[in-house]
Design a protein that fits this description.
Layout: H1 2-26, H2 34-44, H3 46-62, H4 69-98, H5 102-116, H6 121-133, H7 137-163
Length: 170
């Protein structure tokens, strides 16, 4: 049952992140308002953190108020891994079919910011090349399937440490 609950929270988190990205697209934050999307993206990070929190709290309740560090970590990492799978697949579809111009718009915006910051053309070219390399299928898969769970470990650890109650603490 607890694995199913983690799976449900992971799927819900992934779908919520995808919906968030799609709403940004519909509202123009991936085209005309791309500069504003940087701030809004920080709010998008709260989506998986919320589902991690709920999942860990539910794990603790299911264990009659006990939460070991390993249990909280398993829950959070599983939720973020599933979130990573769903969002990676979605972003591959998004970038290829829904908004194929998004990468070009994002690169143009970054180029503008770097130019305004006084970066030299060769520095800008190197940064843009790194950005392009990050768009390769292998880089996107690695980022989504490995990077997402690794980034999810930080809030998972914090939440688990706050909520942890070991049976040895009696």
């Amino acid at each position: 049952m607890k694995k199913n609950r983690d799976l449900i929270y992971g799927i819900s988190s992934g779908l919520a992140v995808c919906a968030f990205v799609f709403v940004q697209y519909l509202l123009g934050y991936h085209s005309d308002k791309i500069g504003d999307s940087r701030i809004i993206n920080y709010f998008g990070m709260l989506i998986p953190i919320t589902f991690i929190s709920i999942g860990i709290i539910q794990r603790k309740k299911a264990q009659e108020g006990w939460l070991e560090l390993k249990d909280g970590m398993k829950t959070g990492i599983l939720i973020t891994f599933i979130t990573g799978i769903i969002t990676t697949v979605f972003m591959l579809i998004y970038n290829k079919y829904i908004n194929p111009e998004f990468i070009n718009v994002a690169m143009a915006y970054e180029n503008k910011l770097l130019t305004e910051a006084g970066k030299k053309p060769e520095e800008i070219a190197a940064i843009i090349e790194q950005f392009k390399a990050g768009q390769a299928l292998s880089a996107q898969l690695f980022s989504g399937l490995v990077g997402t769970p690794l980034m999810g470990m930080i809030p998972t650890l914090i939440i688990t440490l706050i909520l942890r109650k070991s049976r040895n603490q009696m």
